[in-house]
Amino acid sequence: MDDKVRTLSQNKALHLYCSRLALEMNNAGYDQGHPEFEKVNTEWTMYSVKEKLFKPILEAMEGKESTAEASTLDYDKVHRSLNWWTSTHLGISIDFPNRYGSNYSEIEKQSPGTFSALSQDESG
Fold it and tell me: Which of 62, 67, 103, 119 could bridge to 47 as Cys pair (CB 3.0-4.6 Å)?
C-alpha cells in the first residue's frame, strides 16, 4: 500500500476535477440552494465542490479532514465514490484528470493555492 502524501500534480488535478464538476452541475441546473436563504441560488465553484463534496467523502472514507493529508491513493478512492454518486443521482460523470490523458497540460496550469478572492489557500 502506497501511503505517501499526495503530490502537487494530484492536488492540481483535484482542483481541475472540482472545477469541471462545478461547471457541469451548474450547466445542468444544480445549485447549492442554501437552506437559510431559500430564494438565493448560488452556483457551484471549484472551492465549494472541494469543501462540500470531496472533503466530506475523504473524511468519511479515510478519516482525513484535509486534502493535504490525503495519500497518493486517497484521491482515486474519493473520486470513484463521488463520481458514482453524481453519475447515479445527477447524470454527471467526470473523469479524474491524470498525466496520461489529453488534459495533462490543463493540470499543470492549475494554480496550487489561489482559487479566487473568496477562497482559502491550499491548507486542505
Answer: 119
